[in-house]
Amino acid sequence: MVVGRIIGWVFVLVGLMVEVRDALVWFDTGHLYPLSLSGAWTLVGYFGRFLAHPVEGALAAIWAAPVLLAIGIALLVLCRRRPRPRRLFG
């Protein structure tokens, strides 16, 4: 559970970093050029060459920030601490 929360926080932080990057580009150029998943993979470098299939290319055109934030929040919700049940007797 702890590992799931850590990975969830990493996804949330990366999603927020992508949001800040998009905001800075928007502020600098005056146009909104959101980073797509394929752009994020290209920045990573290693996975960029695996996006040759048309379906993967279409999925990679999705805006990266909401996807990363949704995955991170889902992991945080699924791996949250659950309260211990109260004992009725003893």
Number of strands: 0
- Binned, the helix content reads 55-70%
Percent range for β-strand residues: under 5%
Structural class: mainly alpha
* Major beta-sheet overview: none
Structure notes:
The two termini are 29 Å apart. The chain is mainly α and 90 residues long. Helix 1 (2-29) packs antiparallel against helix 4 (64-78). Helix content is 64%, strand content 0%. The protein contains four helices and no strands. The longest helix has 28 residues, at 2-29. It has one domain (2-78). It has helices at residues 2-29, 37-44, 54-60, 64-78. The model has no long low-confidence stretch (mean pLDDT 81).
Give a short overview.
With 90 residues, this protein is mainly α. Helices cover 64% and strands 0% of the residues. It has one domain.
Main attributes of the structure:
single chain; 90 residues; mainly alpha
Topology:
Blueprint: H1 2-29, H2 37-44, H3 54-60, H4 64-78
